[in-house]
Specification:
Structural class: mainly beta
Largest sheet: 8 strands, mixed
Number of helices: 1
Helix content: under 10%
Strand content: over 45%
Radius of gyration: 19 Å
Strand order of the largest sheet: 2-3-4-11-6-9-12-27
Length: 292
Amino acid sequence: MSMSQTSTAFRGVERLVAGQQTADGAGVRLTRVLTQNLQRRLDPFLMLDAFRNENPDDYIGGFPDHPHRGFETITYMLAGRMRHHDSAGNQGLLGPGGMQWMVAGSGLIHSELPEQESGLMEGFQLWLNLPAADKMMAPNYRDVPSAAIPEYTSASGVHVRVIAGESHGTVGAVQRPVTEPLYLDIHLLAGSRFEQAIPAGHNAFAYVYRGRAEIAGTAVDDRQMAILANDGAAGVVIEAPVDSRLILVAGHPLDEPIAQYGPFVMNTAEQIEQTLRDYRDGKFEAAVVQAL
């Protein structure tokens, strides 16, 4: 997609978000960046957790058995090792640079437990909503090791890992219908510039996890999320005054009702009540989980 070099061709920053410090699972300390009050604004994304812990006490408990229904989870590891296990007996190991894309669909129970006792544990978990027609699809997932995530380096030295969607002709590890997610991990050298096409109707945000970036002239510091304006522009330009790293995420909004009760995301309160009955009746334990 060709875009003008003028600033009017690119999205501005609507606002900056610092996130909320919290703990989840068995005491894992993390920053909840995309919180429930932003779900409508950043539809189809439901939640983004960022974790960066050097102290094992802040992550060693991991995330023991817990259920999900009605959405997708994308776990992307920057450092550390996490073992996944689900109620169908499947398991996989996420290492540095690796990603797991899980479609919870009709429901499953899984756990994510660290396979290390010291060192840095860092990464993200993003929740992506499923359209109403797909919420009860069979659960499935795909483990993608670091070496299998497509990446490229631009002429200006910007290194991009394409987790989902497409960037400058490089097709990502995962493509999803309806929500059409874009998920990039972008590494910029000081003084470099990066442009990315984003359909005008898609909601988008960036989260800086190293250094400091500038988006349409707005400084975005380490551990800040920039919600990109929906102003009709079909792209974003990112500049780095210092060496920086960030994720860029965008997707097509579903514009459907959201009914959430903890790890269950449906469209109506009645569906949530049915989900709770199904969980109590052991139907999640019987789920057959397939490969995505």
